[in-house]
Amino acid sequence: QVQLVESGGGLVQPGGSLRLSCAASTTIFSPYIMAWYRQYLGKQRELVATFTSDWRTNYAGSVEGRFTISKDHAKNTVYLQMTSLKPEDTAIYYCNVRWRGSDYWGQGTQVTVSS
Asked: How many CB atoms lie within 10 A of CB 36?
């Protein structure tokens, strides 16, 4: 059992930045996939970015060049650095860890981009 605790969401103006954090309650050993998803109001959750235990990253086309996923192994935490934010980035963001055949989810954090 793994608990994921998210933080860092909030209200930001277009063009601004936010850094989301997701701290795991236990050490996640390789192999794993860590990811960020987002969910628009009334829509299905969609994949934003992935970070794999072989240190590869991938991004949705809508965020590539603006968002960066990273991991601090010592803190057992995955981050999503979000820059050049747009109103269409407004959503609830969820972190996810796929490890040992199971998916674990954070509680979600609201990101709102508005002037």
From this structure: 26
CB 59 within 8 A of CB 7: no
**What type of residue sits at position 64?**
E
Tell me the one-letter amino acid at 28: I
| Furthest-apart CA atoms within the chain: distance in Å | 43
- Tokens 């992935």 correspond to what residue? 50
Query: Which residue is associated with the tokens 């103006």?
Result: 13
In three-state secondary structure terms, 100 is: coil
- Owner of token pair 């990811």: 35
pLDDT in tens, 64-110: 999 999 999 999 999 999 999 999 999 999 999 999 999 999 999 99
Q: Cβ(17)–Cβ(82) under 8 Å?
A: yes
Residue with tokens 């490890």: 99
